[in-house]
Design a protein that fits this description.
Radius of gyration: 25 Å
CATH superfamily of the largest domain: Vaccinia Virus protein VP39
Number of domains: 2
Bound molecules: S-adenosylmethionine
CATH topology of the largest domain: Rossmann fold
Strand order of the largest sheet: 3-2-1-4-5-9-8
Length: 298
């Protein structure tokens, strides 16, 4: 949820919660004013000032905290072009839930999760606080399903609420520094589903290497679900033509790529091992997510 939506909900909730105490105080004042108008004009004045000052302070606190959060996010996202440094600062939105993931990827995604057979493996790349996989695994356990889920995140910032069999988090390392064998070694196996919601692919220096890793970790009939800012990745060819991430992915033989205008990309594999072409980094501009420009050979 965005900071703005959080603040708005906070305000509505506080108004709702403070409604009781406010109206109680107002009733007390009006009751006493009735009994002793002279004494009460003073009480009324003091109460009104007190209540107004309290409410104003509360709202001011919320506003200041939103501004501070915004400044912290700017510091995280815009003060350096070093992408690992941005990931290390961990100041971006990272608490998305399973419902958020389903919102991004649509009902097809929740059907795919529901259809995972025993022994299947979901890997969430850049899993943040791991809420989505944790919620999924708790539901699966309650239904007696024996599936696996792995979250890969440089920083989680939160413990798994309730350890669930088959759920693990690889935290504290960049994906680039984790061997594929560690991710898919027994009992986990290759992935049936890989998700990346504003995760590793959005923050990687080398988007081609990241994609290659995803393809290597995927079962032949698996699906990769990506949610990212598609135009933030630009790929230029020697003849000057320019592709965004989705257009570039669609040029790679061996991949079946579908996308929607708001940032969702799904990738399936055709038969055989696709060759992901090399890209050269031309420039990286800070942001959450950053803008990366690459050049390609043709
Ligand atoms: C913007 S957060 C998104 C988190 C989560 N997917 C969500 O939607 O709430 C980005 C996540 O990707 C992780 N990340 C980015 N690059 C990474 C890398 N190279 N290796 C491991 N984790 C990475 C960060 O640690 C963080 O957890």
């Amino acid at each position: 949820m965005s900071g703005f939506r959080k603040t708005f909900l906070c305000l509505v909730l506080s108004a709702f919660l403070l409604r009781g105490p406010f109206s109680f105080a107002a009733e007390q004042v009006s009751d006493r004013v009735h009994k002793n108008p002279e004494e009460m004009s003073c009480v009324k004045l003091v109460s009104t000032i007190g209540l107004t000052a309290g409410a104003s302070l509360y709202v001011a606190g919320l506003v200041v905290s939103s501004i501070l959060q915004g400044l912290a996010a700017m510091r995280t996202c815009f003060m350096t072009d070093n992408l690992h440094e941005i990931v290390k600062r961990n100041g971006f939105s990272k608490g998305r839930t399973l419902e958020d993931y389903v919102d991004f990827f649509g009902p097809e995604f929740s059907e795919a999760l529901a259809a995972l057979p025993d022994g299947a493996h979901w890997i969430d790349m850049g899993s943040g606080e791991n809420r989505a996989i944790e919620e999924f695994m708790r539901g699966a356990e309650a239904q007696g399903r024996r599936v696996f889920a792995t979250g890969i995140t440089y920083k989680a910032g939160r413990e798994i609420y309730e350890p669930t069999p088959g759920l693990r988090v690889l935290e504290g390392r960049y994906l680039e520094n984790i061997a594929n064998q560690e991710i898919v070694g027994p009992p986990y196996g290759k992935a049936d589903i890989i998700t990346d919601v504003m995760g590793v692919l959005s923050y990687a220096d080398h988007v081609d290497d990241t994609l290659r890793t995803y393809v290597q970790l995927l079962k032949p009939n698996g699906v990769i679900y990506i949610y990212t800012s598609i135009p933030n990745t630009q790929i230029k060819s020697r003849n000057g033509s320019e592709l965004d991430l989705e257009e570039w992915l669609k040029t790679i033989p061996g991949l079946v790529v579908e996308s929607s205008p708001y940032g969702k990309i799904t990738i399936r594999l055709k038969k055989g091992d696709p060759i992901i072409p090399e890209l050269k980094v031309q420039s990286v501009k800070a942001g959450c997510p950053p803008t990366r420009i690459y050049t390609r050979e043709n």
